[in-house]
Sequence to fold (118 residues):
Amino acid sequence: MKYLVLLIGDGEVKPWDEHTPDEQAATMERFRAFDEACAARPGVEVLAGEALADAGTATTLRTRGGRLEMTDGPYAEVVEGMGGFYLVEAPDLDVLVELLGELPAYDMQVSPVVDVTY
Fold:
């Protein structure tokens, strides 16, 4: 099953620009450890993953009255910005949650992807 993992806010991790170079290297090592743990686990594959720019650089699109409206900035109801995402194939949620423990201490939202065949 595919899962979308949203890395939300910074959890217990301070903002990236407040890290020392050594702290940044240690944080990047946690991401490498996650990638390696996924690669070593049968049936698990990281399909995509990226860090995202600051929420202030986001663009929000909304459909109102059948028209698409664009505004600068993050979606208004978002309390914390997203720091990044992963799209992961895993046998089940328990396996994925175990592997996510390798990542830095972000708050995360995990959503199964709906398998739609056209």
Remarks:
- DSSP finds two helices and six strands in the chain.
- Helices lie at 21-40, 93-100.
